[in-house]
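Per your request, structure below.
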């Protein structure tokens, strides 16, 4: 199915949605907001309001909480709107457009400016030799714990015990059993714990497998004499790796860890933030911002009452600076399968026909945008999403069950880049979990820590495990059901009972009706530098999906090797895909061009080309070579497809901010990005050999 065919189908889908406005014509409600406004004003262009919450409330009042009475537009004048609380929108806020005034640039910020910096003169024992006499500090409100700091718009580096590539991180730790009080971790190097705080500010960033099983466990109960701490996380428990080299740790956020310019730490208990300025930075004039909100906008429909949020639109607005929840505070309903943070600056749940167009979502502590559970007909177009702690966009449907309600969304002409900055490296530019019939095309995706586009579901062996299938089984702080958030109540009683007593086992056929990541069209996206942190997963990746997904005419470039990854990767139970006419240029060794497990069925692959091939860059697996993909020594197929995509994007105004495409031109020197990826013997690859 082509893009135009998919969009026609999507248009027919819209026709089945009841219009929220009746046949009667109603005058539009307009409300103006300005950073120089007054919340006691009338909300006109001459007398604008000052806050977004007051603008929302005024629209509610004018429409008597009935969005069908008239459409509304809330117009934001240029300048910064610093939020003290998340802007929450509900069904009565439907049929409302929030937009910039003309060409002005409104910025909705979750950050607060930190002032009053002074140079430290105390010679504290926890300050490293390198940092003595170089650290500045500022007072903040006690209890304010944040995970990001920005100096003149640039993300500063949180202090850390090592800045080495993760394969070189220390491995001298042993782990105890999960415990509700926190999982005990013991270290041979006891000295490193001497000045580490126990108040929950420090985090233990730990990798337990190369494919991104990692978390930011909150550190408590530090005992330097015994060489122990406790790891606190609802995301995952620590466990031993399948391969000895695929593990490692570092500590982050402590005054004792600051040992180079650009690093910072916060002591929330004392209400102090510390920073070693970079050369040339003047903290008397620099703007230093820390986030205080985890979400800027939360749209929440009421699915159980069949009251959704319709037609809330954002246009021309910049959203910036959010934080993330510490992992020991995560809600019980959050999905944890991908070892990522599913929260977002813009969080939509229970929505239809909402949109984000010509916006910028920057410096999110988690995802840029999440469309959670019921989300249909939503559009994210012509927007930039960048510098995120987790991924770019998350289409998060319900776990396996009968609720197939996240679908028919449209993601196009966006510039999505630089993810995993909060140590959630298993986060792609676009994540699709249990979501189908989506159209994702003409996006520029750059520098993802993991895959660029991933679509996943739940394996039948996990569906057959009662600990994962039913809620309620806890292992320490971790809730096993959160791995996939399945809906056992949707299954026949005999299946529920069979899973409980171990007499019923799902298989690839009986699981398929409950896998809703189906009929997705991924076409004409340009991907540059995937896998900036991890080794495997594919630029495009699928695992345990539904049927009839299409990957077509995508361009992929990486300046280094991908020896543990199939570039187009069909992992477990990724069946009945159409993969055609994709072009990829990988400047190094790869695992496979188009890879799939031998047990998968119904996949069709043709016309896929690896360009600029050199013999010393041979694929490690070549069973599908000359069948599903071919090598060519020139770059003509890449230039042809790239020109086609760029022409089509230019006709729509180009990608936001007109970025460099990230693929070298003919004869241009290749600039290597990221670490050189090596593949230790016996380590994990996308599809096992």
């Amino acid at each position: 199915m082509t893009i135009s065919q998919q969009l026609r189908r999507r248009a027919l889908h819209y026709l089945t949605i009841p219009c929220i406005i009746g046949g009667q014509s109603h005058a539009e409600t307009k409300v103006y907001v300005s950073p120089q406004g007054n919340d006691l004003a009338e909300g006109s262009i001459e007398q604008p309001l000052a806050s977004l919450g007051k603008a929302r409330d005024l629209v509610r009042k004018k429409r008597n909480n009935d969005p069908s009475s008239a459409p509304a537009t809330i117009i934001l004048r240029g300048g910064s709107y610093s939020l003290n609380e998340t802007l929450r929108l509900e069904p009565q806020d439907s049929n409302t457009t929030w937009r910039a005034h003309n060409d002005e640039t409104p910025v909705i910020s979750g950050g607060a400016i930190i002032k009053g910096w002074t140079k430290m003169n105390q010679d504290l024992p926890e300050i490293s030799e390198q940092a003595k006499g170089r650290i500045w500090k500022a007072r903040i409100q006690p209890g304010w714990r944040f995970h990001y700091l920005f100096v003149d718009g640039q993300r500063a580096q949180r202090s850390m015990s090592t800045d080495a590539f993760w394969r070189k991180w220390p491995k001298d730790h042993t782990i105890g059993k999960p415990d509700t009080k926190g999982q005990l971790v013991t270290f041979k190097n006891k000295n490193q714990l001497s000045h580490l705080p126990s108040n929950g500010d420090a985090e233990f960033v730990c990798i337990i497998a190369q494919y991104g099983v990692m978390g930011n466990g909150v550190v408590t109960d530090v005992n330097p004499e015994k060489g122990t701490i406790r790891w606190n996380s609802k995301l995952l428990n620590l466990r031993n790796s399948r391969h000895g080299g695929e593990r490692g740790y570092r500590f982050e956020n402590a005054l004792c860890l600051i040992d180079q310019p650009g690093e910072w730490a916060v002591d929330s208990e004392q209400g102090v933030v510390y920073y070693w300025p970079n050369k040339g930075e003047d903290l008397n004039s620099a703007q230093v911002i820390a986030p205080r909100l985890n979400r800027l906008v939360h749209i929440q429909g009421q699915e159980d009452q069949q009251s959704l949020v319709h037609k809330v639109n954002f246009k021309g607005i910049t959203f910036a600076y959010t934080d993330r929840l510490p992992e020991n505070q995560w809600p019980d309903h959050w999905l944890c399968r991908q070892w990522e943070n599913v929260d977002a600056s813009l969080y939509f749940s229970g929505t239809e026909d909402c949109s984000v167009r010509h916006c910028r979502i920057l410096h999110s502590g988690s995802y840029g945008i999440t469309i959670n559970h019921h989300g249909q007909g939503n559009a994210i177009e012509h927007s930039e999403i960048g510098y995120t702690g987790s991924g770019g966009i998350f289409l998060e449907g319900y776990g396996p069950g009968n609720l197939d309600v996240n679908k028919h969304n449209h993601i196009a002409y966006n510039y999505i880049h630089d993810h995993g900055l909060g140590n959630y490296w298993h986060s792609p530019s676009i994540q699709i979990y249990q979501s189908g019939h989506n159209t994702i095309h003409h996006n520029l995706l750059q520098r993802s820590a993991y895959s660029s586009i991933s679509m996943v579901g739940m394996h039948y062996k996990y569906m057959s495990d009662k600990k994962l299938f039913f809620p309620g089984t806890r292992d320490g702080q971790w809730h096993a059901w959160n791995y996939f958030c399945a809906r056992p109540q949707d299954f026949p009683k005999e299946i529920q009972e069979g899973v409980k007593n171990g007499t019923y086992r799902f298989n690839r056929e009986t699981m398929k009706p409950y896998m809703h990541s189906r009929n997705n069209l991924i076409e004409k996206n340009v991907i540059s530098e995937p896998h900036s942190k991890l080794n495997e997963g594919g630029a495009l990746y699928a695992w345990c999906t539904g049927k009839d997904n299409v990957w077509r005419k995508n361009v992929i470039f990486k300046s280094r090797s991908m020896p543990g990854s199939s570039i187009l990767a069909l992992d477990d139970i990724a069946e009945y895909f159409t993969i055609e006419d994709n072009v990829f240029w990988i400047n190094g060794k790869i695992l496979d061009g188009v890879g799939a497990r031998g047990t998968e069925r119904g996949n069709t692959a043709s016309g896929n080309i690896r360009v600029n091939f050199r013999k010393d860059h041979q694929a490690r697996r070549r069973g599908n070579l000359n069948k599903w993909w071919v090598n060519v020594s020139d770059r003509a197929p890449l230039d042809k497809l790239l020109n086609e995509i760029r022409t089509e994007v230019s006709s729509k105004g180009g990608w936001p901010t007109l970025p460099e495409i990230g693929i070298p031109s003919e004869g241009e020197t290749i600039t290597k990005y990221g670490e050189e990826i090596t593949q230790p013997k016996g380590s994990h690859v996308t599809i096992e050999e």
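The domain at 82-99+293-457+516-650 is CATH 2.160.20.10 (Pectate Lyase C-like).

Regards,
D.
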